[in-house]
Amino acid sequence: MKSVLIFGGSGGIGSAIARTLKQLGFAIMIADLRPGEKEIADFFVPTDATAEADIKKAISVAQEKFGSIDIVVNCQGAYFVDKIENTSAAEFDKMVEVNLRSVFLVCKNVVPLMKFKKSGYIINLVSMAGLRGKRGESAYCASKFGAMGLTDTLFEELRGTGVRVTAVCPTSVDTPFLNKAIELSQEELEKVLKPLDIGRIVGELVTSHPRVLRKVVPIEIELEIDKLEKKR
C-alpha cells in the first residue's frame, strides 16, 4: 500500500484529496493545525506548516508509521484580497510564509528521502494565480508565482532521479476562501470548481505511470474569469 502525507489535509481541497486517495487504496497521514475527518486519515499529526521543526516531525512520523513516504501533497494555503496600496507588509509576508516558504521547507526536507529511494511524487497545489495576475491579489499572486517557480525548478532538478513533481493550478474553487472573497449566484456557483474535482485530478496524477511527467496542470472553468474579478 502506497503512503501519502498531506500538508493542509484538513481543509476543503486537502480533505477532498485525502478522501479520493483513500478510496484509491492509499494510506493517508494528514499534517495540519486541526484534525480532519477521522474516517479519512489513517494518522494525524498536529503541524504548523510554516514551522520547519513541525514539518520535520510530520515527515519523521510518516516514515515511522509507513516505512517510507511515496507521495507528499502541499495543500496548505492562505488567501488575501485587496489592492496593493491597502496591503500591509505583514499581510504580504503572511502570504509568502504560508504559500511559498512552507512549500519550500516541505520539499527541502522530503526530496532527499525520495531521491535516496529513487521514487516519489510531490504535488504542489499552486492555483491559477501562480500563472497569471489577478485583480486585487498582488500579495497572493506574488506568493503563488513563487510557488510555481519553485515547482518549475524542482521539476528540472529532479528529472532522472525517479522523483516527480507537479503544480496543480485550479482557478476558482468552491471553498471558504472563495466565499469570503466574492458573492456568487447559485448559477455561478455551480460553474465553479468543487474540491472533489481537484481530488480526482490528483488521483489521476498519482496513479499514472512513473514515466509520465507533468510539470503543471492548469484547471479552468466555464465561467469567465473577468466576470469573477469584476465582483471584487
Would you report the number of β strands?
7
What portion of the residues fall into strands of 2 or more residues? 15-25%
Distance, first to last CA = 45 Å
Order of helices and strands: EHEEHEHEHEHHHEH
Concise overview:
With 232 residues, the chain is α/β, with parallel strands linked by helices. The chain is built from eight helices and seven strands.
Describe this structure in words.
The chain contains eight helices and seven strands, in the order E-H-E-E-H-E-H-E-H-E-H-H-H-E-H. It has one domain: NAD(P)-binding Rossmann-like Domain (Rossmann fold), CATH 3.40.50.720. Helix 1 packs across helix 7 (195-206), helix 2 packs parallel to helix 3 and helix 3 (89-117) runs parallel beside helix 4 (138-157). The chain is globular. The model has no long low-confidence stretch (mean pLDDT 91). The chain is an alpha/beta fold and 232 residues long.
